[in-house]
């Protein structure tokens, strides 16, 4: 091995972890010590708070925190907080929000709010015997066994909505599930759901052991494999949409309203039928969604996994957004499955998360679902609008220009020169380098 394994890394102090990393992997270069330390917060209590969000922490990783204003959502005006490092995401969302501001804005509907979890188990028993046992004994016992766990959630209007026995033996020998649906109100509910499911596993084992419905051989075959929530929540669904008369689309790219509407619909249809395009199309949607998810302290990995699973729910990966242009009306919408919370986790701890939620008017979980769907729809509208008119590079590369110039060590004066130089040109990396070299040679 090229390096020595470490014992007890988690027990080292933060400085001890840094010293070991720098000496073992970075040739003792003190510059790397300085890089890590310059991102520490000057307030030791705030830094300690951040250190304790995760494990083996040695520094903070900054992301730009921007604001996309002018979002009219269900008659209320919002400024959306967006934590994202990709150029043009905030700009595209803001431009889309402004476009729809005088056209009624964005409308949203919560279609459902169910979250799911499963107890996965192996049981070598005839399916009809297990189904009878579930219907006439087990289901009631499962609900009784979790009453203490669900008490506070039930007081807030949530809890376990239903429990079903799912027979998966046609796909895997002796495989069954207890599939439970939950309403976790304003919390993400992961710990709540997993606690309920773990109790399901214990109760299932106990009830089978004392049941007279099964032989001793059948009882001994029962194996609880795992109890875990699912991040695929197709019934925790929100719709966001925009619509207006085609004659009111008014695009400033030089093409007619009718051509714009036609090309836009074709672009969406292509994403509906072509997985290669749908992947990039949906990635753009999640640019908008994830930026607000991160800013509000929610789990962007879960929202990503759920959205992409939903996009493939019919056996073929497809667009999350849809468009019609019937009877002279342009309509564009998204159905987004998304599970988020506004209490618990980072929402009560991270100062910027608390700021984000305050900025959004301290929304409920369902209101945040609506905001997130809108941010994804706006991002997708902005991207498609560019794609079918001027092309994606014109706007995106102008936003990326400063990144290129910073990499090249440009001065503030040189940056201003480039902003002017590319005012009426499409930015390309090659052209930036050529002009930079020409400028420096003067």
From TrEMBL:
Catalytic activity field: (R)-mevalonate + 2 NAD(+) + CoA = (3S)-3-hydroxy-3-methylglutaryl-CoA + 2 NADH + 2 H(+)
Domain of life: Bacteria
Family, similarity comment: Belongs to the HMG-CoA reductase family.
The keyword Oxidoreductase is assigned to this record: yes
Name of the protein this chain belongs to: 3-hydroxy-3-methylglutaryl coenzyme A reductase
Pfam families, sorted: HMG-CoA_red (PF00368)
Alphabetized UniProt keyword annotations: NAD, Oxidoreductase
Organism: Chryseobacterium endophyticum
Pathways per UniProt: Metabolic intermediate metabolism; (R)-mevalonate degradation; (S)-3-hydroxy-3-methylglutaryl-CoA from (R)-mevalonate: step 1/1
UniProt-recorded Gene Ontology molecular function terms: hydroxymethylglutaryl-CoA reductase (NADH) activity; hydroxymethylglutaryl-CoA reductase (NADPH) activity
GO biological process terms on file: coenzyme A metabolic process
Known EC number: 1.1.1.88
Principal EC category: oxidoreductase
UniProt xrefs under InterPro entries: HMG_CoA_Rdtase, HMG_CoA_Rdtase_bac-typ, HMG_CoA_Rdtase_cat_sf, HMG_CoA_Rdtase_NAD(P)-bd_sf, HMG_CoA_Rdtase_sub-bd_dom_sf
């Amino acid at each position: 091995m090229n390096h020595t394994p470490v014992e007890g890394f988690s027990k080292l102090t933060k400085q001890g972890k840094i010293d070991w990393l720098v000496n073992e992997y970075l040739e003792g270069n003190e510059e790397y010590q300085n890089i890590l330390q310059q991102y520490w917060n000057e307030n030791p209590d705030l830094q300690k708070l951040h250190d304790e969000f995760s494990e083996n922490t040695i520094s903070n990783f900054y992301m730009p925190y921007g604001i996309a204003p002018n979002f009219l959502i269900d008659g209320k005006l919002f400024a959306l907080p967006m934590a994202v490092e990709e150029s043009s995401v905030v700009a595209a969302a803001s431009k889309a929000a402004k476009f729809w501001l005088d056209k009624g804005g964005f409308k949203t509907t919560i279609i459902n709010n169910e979250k799911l979890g499963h107890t996965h188990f192996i049981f070598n028993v005839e399916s009809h015997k297990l189904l009878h046992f579930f219907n006439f004994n087990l289901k009631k016992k499962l609900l009784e066994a979790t009453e203490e766990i669900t008490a506070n959630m039930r007081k807030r209007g949530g809890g376990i909505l239903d429990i079903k026995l799912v027979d998966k033996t046609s796909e895997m020998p002796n495989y069954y599930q207890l599939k439970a649906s939950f309403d976790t109100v304003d919390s993400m509910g992961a710990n709540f759901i997993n606690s309920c499911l773990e109790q399901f596993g214990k109760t299932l084992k106990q009830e089978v052991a004392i049941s007279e419905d099964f032989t001793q051989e059948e009882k001994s075959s029962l194996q609880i494999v795992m109890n875990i929530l699912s991040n695929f929540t197709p019934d925790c669904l929100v719709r966001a949409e925009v619509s207006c008369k085609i004659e009111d689309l008014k695009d400033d790219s030089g093409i007619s309203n009718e051509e714009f509407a036609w090309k836009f619909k074709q672009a969406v249809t292509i994403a509906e039928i072509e997985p290669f395009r749908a992947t990039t199309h949906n990635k753009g949607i999640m640019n908008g969604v994830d930026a607000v998810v991160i800013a509000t302290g929610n789990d962007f990995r879960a929202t990503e996994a759920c959205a992409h699973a939903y996009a493939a729910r019919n056996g073929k990966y497809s667009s999350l957004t849809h468009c019609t242009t019937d009877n002279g009306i342009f309509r564009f919408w998204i159905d987004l499955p998304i599970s988020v919370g506004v209490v618990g986790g980072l929402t009560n701890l991270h100062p910027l998360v608390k700021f984000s939620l305050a900025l959004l008017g301290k929304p409920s979980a369902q209101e945040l679902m609506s905001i997130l769907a809108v941010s994804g729809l706006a991002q997708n509208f902005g991207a498609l609008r560019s794609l079918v008119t001027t092309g994606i590079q014109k706007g995106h590369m102008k936003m990326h220009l400063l990144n290129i110039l910073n990499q090249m060590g440009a001065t503030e004066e040189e940056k201003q020169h480039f902003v002017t130089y590319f005012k009426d040109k499409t930015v390309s990396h090659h052209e930036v380098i050529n002009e930079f070299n020409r400028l420096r040679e003067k």
